[in-house]
Amino acid sequence: MIYLNCAATSFRRPDSVGRAVLAAMGSCGSYGRGSGGGDLDAARMVFSAREKLADFLGFSHPERVCFTSGATQSLNTAIMGMPRVHGRVIATDWDHNATLRPLARLADEQGARVDFVPAGPDGALDLDVLETLLGEPADFIVCTHASNVTGMVADVAHVVSLGHAHGVPVVLDAAQTAGSMPLSMEGLGVDVLCVTGHKALMGPTGTGAILVSPHIEPAPLIEGGSGVRSAERRQPSVWPEHLEAGTLNMHGIAGLAAALDWLDDVGVAEIHAYESALLDRFLAGVSRIEGAEPYGTFDGAHCGIVSLNLRGWESSALADELAARYGIATRAGLHCAPRMHAALGTLERGCVRFSFNRFTGTDDIDAALAALSELAGA
Amino acid sequence: MAAVRETCLVVTFASTHDAMAAERSLLEQGVAGRIIPTPVAISSECGLAWKSPVAAREALLAALATLAHDAVVEMEL
User: Fold this and answer.
1) Among the four given CATH numbers 3.40.630.30, 3.40.50.300, 3.90.1150.10, 3.40.640.10, the one describing domain A15-266
2) In-domain check, residue B46
3) A287 touches chain B (CB under 8 A)
4) By CA distance, what is B24's nearest residue in A?
5) Could you give the CA distance from residue A243 to residue A224 in angstroms, rounded to a whole number?
């Protein structure tokens, strides 16, 4: 099987990740819930993982790195919990349903107004519109770092610059970029960063984090056991427990920590260069296939994602044929990003996404191109 | 058999994170002591505390100068 659906999950992971999960299952008790051997081991491991993730993502406040089940929980936490004064949020057409649906909930249940920075038919965000939208007060901007449909990377520094000039903080969804390209939260000036552990960060599913700058105090999404201030009626305001109600996924976090060690060893810049080379190889091949229509532009910053349609094929049929006949896993449909597909003109038919990571080989790329060439002529 | 009690220094913290950061630093600096469950007699925010012998007071207080913590309590445990 050739797995070209890495934007969904990394699928293949460093061997050390599985070993770390298994070791944790045999050694970790519960973080913050006891001082005996296993529980202290868990506390030390989580503490270390928190520091590693903060360091990896360019954030100098590890105590404000809160582990979650993934980017979806992180984004729900941010969107539902960010301080609200104006009842207005600015989002983008690139956003995934992990952002769009909590925003819709915010609108439906609390009357919030949500305005969107539009994407054009070429997939590019029109940041001039953001400047216009910022003419009215907003509570925060939520922005996707890289589109999970086109792989295009947003000019986040510009978004932050515009937002901060109007006193509006920025929540960044880095589900597709954390681990696939160099990313510094403080370098970009982002106020809240949401990541998942199981994609380019190479960790297990069920891991993720929300990183919250010290000047932001979101309300917790869920409340419960914390291991601290147990007599208090509501979730304590101390960090990181403020956003970590309930028992943490220690086994997953142990795997994520091992993945971060692997990423440090390989080097995220090297990973980005490797994936960029795969992208170039794939695009060059696609350009020679008659009837292949890739979406988006490829002249700017990009991660290892290409979505396309092939003349004569429905997107779902093409993905099925690639899987059934060639053993190539891709993803058809709308990729949980309906506004992006609306912008690209593919809301009705969807498209097929090919996505790569450090474990994808050039032979995998060539096999996909050969399959597409064959199917284009079929 | 009743536990032998001795006077010691107990350091309390606001969070598990702070307790773990202190443990790592104190051990690195060779300060005698270990993490214990916070004694019920102490009103503390975190379930984990650090216990040192009284003899380590000087080294402990010096090390704590740069570590996030709530209080240092002398008590019999």
Assistant:
1) 3.40.640.10
2) yes
3) no
4) A44
5) 10
Residue B66's domain comprises 7-76
Q: Where are the domains of chain A?
A: 2-10+267-376, 15-266
Is A241 within 8 Å of B16 when comparing Cβ atoms? yes
| Contact (CB<8Å) B20/A240 | no
How many structural domains does chain B have? 1
Q: What is the DSSP string of A13-41?
A: --HHHHHHHHHHHHH---TTS--SHHHHH
Q: Nearest-CA neighbor of A301 among A270, A324, A279, A330?
A: A279
* ipTM of the complex as predicted: 0.86
Q: What is the CATH number of the domain that holds B46?
A: 3.30.70
Q: Which of residues 14-53 of B touch A (CB under 8 A)?
A: 14-21, 23-24, 35-37, 45-48
Element (H, E) at A263: helix A250-266
Q: Judge whether B2 lies within some domain.
A: no
Asked, for residue B19, whether it belongs to a domain, the answer is: yes
User: What are the DSSP calls for A41-105, one per residue?
Assistant: HHHHHHHHHHHHHHHHTT-S-GGGEEEESSHHHHHHHHHHHS--SSSEEEEETT--HHHHHHHHH
Give the number of beta-carbon pairs within 8 Å between A and B: 56
B1 within a domain of the structure (yes/no): no
Which pLDDT tens digits describe chain A residue by residue (378 residues)? 999 999 999 999 999 999 999 999 999 998 988 888 899 999 999 999 999 999 999 999 999 999 999 999 999 999 999 999 999 999 999 999 999 999 999 999 999 999 999 999 999 999 999 999 999 999 999 999 999 999 999 999 999 999 999 999 999 999 999 999 999 999 999 999 999 999 999 999 999 999 999 999 999 999 999 988 888 999 999 999 999 999 999 999 999 999 999 999 999 999 999 999 999 999 999 999 999 999 999 999 999 999 999 999 999 999 999 999 999 999 999 999 999 999 999 999 999 999 999 999 999 999 999 999 999 986
Contacts of A132 (CB under 8 A, 6+ apart): none
Of B15, B20, B23, the CB nearest to A228: B15
Tell me yes or no: is domain A2-10+267-376 CATH 3.90.1150.10: yes
Under a CB-based contact definition with an 8 Å cutoff, are residues A45 and A254 in contact?
A: yes
The segments of chain B whose pLDDT lies below 70 read 1-2, 44
Asked if the C-beta of A50 comes within 8 angstroms of chain B's C-beta atoms, the answer is yes
Closest partner residue to A44 (CB to CB) among B20, B45, B46 is: B20
